[in-house]
Amino acid sequence: MSILTQTTTPGTSTLERLPSELLRxxxxxxxxxxxxxxxxQDPNTKPTKQATSLPCLLTSRTLHATALPVMYRDITTxxxxxxxxxxxxxxxxxxxxxxxxxxxLSPLYTSPLYPRPENEVLVNPLPGLLSLTPLLRSFRxxxxxQDHLTLPxxxxxxxxxxxxxxxxxxxxxxxxxVWEFKRLVSxxxxxxxxxxxxxxxxxxxxxxxxxxxxLLPQMPRLRVLEARRTQVTVSTLEKIPGSARLVExxxxxxxxxxxxxxxxxxxxxPAVRGSLEIMNLDASEESPFLAEEDITSIxxxxxxHLKVLTLKNSFMTAVHVPLLRTLVGRIxxxxxxxxxxxxxxEAIFLPPQETDVPDILPNEEEPVPTDSKHQTILDPMEExxxxxxxxxxxxxxxxxxxxxxxxxxxLDLSGMSTAEQGKxxxxxxxxxxxxxxxxxxxxEKVLRRVGILGRVCRAVGWDVESTGRMCWIVRxxxx
Length: 479
Description:
Layout: H1 20-32, H2 54-57, H3 61-73, E1 74-76, H4 80-92, H5 94-97, E2 102-105, H6 126-131, E3 138-141, H7 151-159, E4 166-168, H8 175-185, E5 198-200, H9 209-215, E6 224-226, H10 234-237, E7 248-250, H11 259-268, E8 278-280, H12 292-300, E9 308-310, H13 321-327, E10 333-335, H14 342-349, H15 372-396, H16 401-405, E11 410-412, H17 418-422, E12 439-443, H18 444-449, H19 453-459, E13 462-467, E14 470-475
Helix pairs in contact: 1-3, 11-12, 13-14, 15-19
């Protein structure tokens, strides 16, 4: 009998006879990779129906039993119709709710192709939904549903889900929600579930510091705290239990923070002293809170596991170059502050004894108007001269051991002055001296001001990608 005509008894196929653990991993891979990477989807059209693990439920009982927990393990929904169908399913089959581990409603009503009707009245689905998911570990909500976060729902999230680890309410900032949060934390005997390890409340601008003062001290397993653009204070951060081990801390644009107190907290608190891997302390250009001495303290006491550090608009100077030179040996992404010069950044990758370095470009001057009939001749000449100068400068400076041992792959210069950013077109950062550096971020206005930047970068092995206000200089892949 040929292979094509062979039949098997139901439940005895090669796939079905695999160990359940291996079969589950295969189905998880199918669920996580529903569409081939080569598939192009026009953003201006409605998305096409993607392949999912749903057909596995209809194949055989063996695959059904293994695929069902995989299918309901991580629920993400963006369309109201899909969300309604999902609610109907778990209400009719409560046993399905027990399978859910992650519930992500953050994309709901946010698709431009499916805007929420203004006159739509949606009954609050959250109380019943959370009651049906007792083993939930991760919960994310869209700001479009923030008014459904009533006191009973908040109580469910923070006290009644014993396995919940991740709470993400970023962008939820309505007056009603703020009022409900105040009522929650003022309840007598209010106790937060000790299972919560990740708390994300980014852009909850009006949430008062008293909310953080009640929540944070009751989270002994806290690993991730994202409180960007909130009213959190350093005195509140000090109340985080010493048993917590924060690996990610995002306190960007928190205007209530004090620089000196923040530096002291990072230096002494056991929850952050040796465990941080990602730290974001960006500030607004108008009100930077980290002074030179604060940056010195932060850099000199940085966690040995730190991989990402962002200090945009902080006050950095050449004094910090030795500390940064040491730091690039272990971090992978760095956002520098204002006050640094391009030569200071180059010194991070060059040997300390390298003093005879050809000077980089002076500060940018406004371009001199040129007659348009001569411009077609002058532009190629200017470009050729700039490329020649850059190549000569790169070749005149020996590669350093610092550059060879650097792990820095992403460097954000957008916090520096426009004039200093413009000097990138003559910088050895575009040469082998920068080691494994792959991406350099600059302000989009620098690209407009330095018209030949893109062509100069391409001549020495880099591409320029620009989207809106973001501009990246990206190293070309060899081979």
